[in-house]
Amino acid sequence: MRTRLLIPALLALPLAGCISFGSKPPPSLLTLESDATVAVGETTSSASARSITIAVPGVPQELAVTRIPVRSGDTSVAYLKDAQWVETPNRMFARMLSDTITARTGRIVLATRASLVDRGARLGGDLRQFGVDANASAAVVVYDATLIRDRTDSAEGARPATALEKRRFEARVPLSQITPAAAGLALNQAANQVAGEVSDWVGR
């Protein structure tokens, strides 16, 4: 009986070294930091400031992860070794848009629920690229934005309430070397550039 019990245990030993419950995390994780500064303690009111709701951008499957894609051709995508975001890039980019638009336009950025009773603007879109172009040695951010202007504009005769505008924004930042740290900094710079351009497009 004792021999029977030992055999399954001994057979399991070689398999234990083959089983992995997840890849080893990198020494540190990457995040995005907005260049725009939102004033602490400053109160804004919808009575005097316009509002806007910012949706988390949609992403292709290659960006629905916390890794940095590296494109070496039109149809070839790999991921940069040891480079990992703290969360998916579209959620971090949405917060960067929120901080940038708040700081540069003075608009009030609303949560989705609050926007149901507000007649402010709506910003949405797709984050098409957020990674490294290996052939050009550059960090690339491409955002296809859609904007519905404040619905109150129609009352002023400026534009129809349901008019939708669409624009592509793109930023490229050169990379001297393709490493996690360099790619993270370059993508942060490119994302800030796009966020600034989107903010100017939205306006006050």
Automatic annotation (TrEMBL):
It comes from Sphingomonas plantiphila. Keywords: Lipoprotein, Signal. Gene3D superfamilies: ABC-type transport auxiliary lipoprotein component. It holds the Pfam family ABC_trans_aux. It comes from the Bacteria. The keyword Signal applies. Coiled coil: none annotated. This is ABC-type transport auxiliary lipoprotein family protein. Residues 36-198 form the ABC-type transport auxiliary lipoprotein component domain. Residues 1-20 form the signal peptide. InterPro entries: ABC_trans_aux.
